[in-house]
Amino acid sequence: MVFSSGTERATLKVPPHATDCHHHIHDHRFPWAPEATLKAGNATVAGYEKLQQRLGTTRNVIIQPSGYGVDNRLLIESIAKFNGQARGIAVVKTNVTQHELDELDRGGVRGVRFNLAQGGHHDGRNDQAARRTRRADGLAMCRSTRRPT
Questions:
Q1: At a CB cut-off of 8 Å and minimum separation 6, what does 144 contact?
Q2: In angstroms, rounded to a whole number, what is the distance separating the alpha carbons of residues 52 and 117?
Q3: Which residues are bridge partners to 59 per DSSP?
Q4: pLDDT of residue 139
Q5: What is the pTM (predicted TM-score) of this model?
Q6: Which domains are seen in the chain, by residue range?
């Protein structure tokens, strides 16, 4: 499946240094999390770069897809491929350590995402991690109360 197969430039001209603030990278070289329910087709860095050329954006924020769970390797690899023009939002375990947050920060991650509503209900499991990351230097907290993507 190709997520953007068009070739025409967007009719809206974006300002210099425009940023796409939410997109996902999927690459089947990386395994899905055992609990993954949504397993999208490949949406690679190369494919996204083609879309950026059409849209006119130069910077982007990559959101860790829930299908990879807390395995942020693809996110970190993808951020690096954008040569300083990308940042990321990771998914972390409820018992995430400061060392793990520091590693993510070094890889370009600037926030963490919690799926608080799995199957439509909030069970409180991420509350402790939310409090910990709220205090972490350099990282923000993103709460997702919608279905995972």
A1: 113, 114, 115, 116, 117
A2: 31
A3: 19
A4: 56
A5: 0.79
A6: 19-144 (3.20.20.140)
